[in-house]
From TrEMBL:
Organism encoding this protein: Lojkania enalia
Name assigned to this protein: ABM domain-containing protein
Family annotation (InterPro entries): Dimeric_a/b-barrel (IPR011008)
Gene3D superfamilies associated with the record: 3.30.70.100
Length: 216
């Protein structure tokens, strides 16, 4: 009997570094990423460098994003928080963190691509919204935004999903732009500007954060 295919789940970590050591903290993050190699169930992991946050240039802030894919949520929970590697990560990164880095786990919406196809060596736009209760409105507004991007003849892959467990009202959407110049040119287009305005008005746009990240 064939088992139904299950899409991987995506983990996103948004560490906040101490302001006096952001450059050193980013370098430590790149070094610590090597600890993820060979973990059972972990399909993909990348560190990204935040270029824009809510439309502002923050490229000098050395802010990091970690994106990981697991074959399923059970593999994630087998690793976090009890694995000795988690303890080693905390030991390496703890001195640089202004607050504990809490991973957020997302299950993809139906039909979503795998996240690795959007971020591997690319610039990706990651939008995260908390306390989003109007799920149908959020997803339909996201679909309109994606369509507006594609109407500009841009083959931009897209992914979106909802949080798991205590993050079930947290939503994230990802656009894989390829290059920073592609993103900057596109967001000036009228159709995309209107779609962004509509999207950010859902539930008052509360708690939305918009990251543009260069992944290795």
């Amino acid at each position: 009997m064939n088992t139904p295919f299950q899409m991987p789940v995506t983990e996103i970590i948004l560490p906040i570094f101490k302001s006096e050591a952001t450059k050193e903290a980013f370098a430590a993050t790149l070094k610590a990423e090597k600890l993820f190699e060979g973990i059972p169930g972990l399909l993909f992991h990348r560190v990204g460098y935040v270029q824009r946050l809510n439309g502002q240039d923050v490229s000098e802030s050395h802010r990091a994003v970690l994106a990981l894919e697991w074959d399923d949520e059970q593999s994630f929970y087998a690793f976090f928080p009890s694995s000795p590697i988690v303890g080693e990560l905390r030991a390496q990164m703890g001195p640089y963190l202004a607050a504990p880095a809490i991973p957020k786990l997302f299950k993809p919406s139906q039909g979503s691509l795998r996240v690795n196809t959007l971020i591997d060596g690319r610039v990706a736009q990651i939008i995260i919204g908390k306390s989003m209760t109007m799920k149908e409105e959020v997803e339909s507004s996201w679909d309109r935004l994606v369509q507006a991007v594609r109407n500009e003849n841009r083959e931009v892959p897209a992914w979106n999903g909802w949080g798991i467990d205590e993050d079930e009202e947290t939503w994230t959407g990802i656009l894989g732009w390829g290059h920073l110049q592609d993103y900057e040119a596109a967001v000036q287009k009228t159709g995309i500007l209107e779609a962004v305005k509509t999207f950010t008005s859902v539930e008052g746009g509360k708690s939305l954060e918009d990251f543009v990240v260069k992944f290795r």
